[in-house]
Request: fold
Amino acid sequence: MWRGDHGLVTVKAKLAEVAGQLQSGLPKSKAGVLVVAIPAAIMPDLTKHLDEWSEAGPNGRVFVGPRGATPRRTNFNQY
Reply:
């Protein structure tokens, strides 16, 4: 959940690629559910990213491809 007015992101779910399939669920432990403070210096860039590239709503995915798909590990391989 994104709370831009406070500069905080709440992580309360995970999306993992297991055997080629995306699986959503809860973090492995209570320690995985956390609030992350976002530095003020990157707030403008993060807000722009969220406006252009993320799903709408407080529970939307932060990283979404141009056609709405979830990026996979292979999208980040270096050539």
Remarks:
- The CA atoms of residues 12 and 68 lie 21 Å apart.
- The chain has one domain: 2-76.
- The chain has one helix and five strands.
- Helices lie at 43-53.
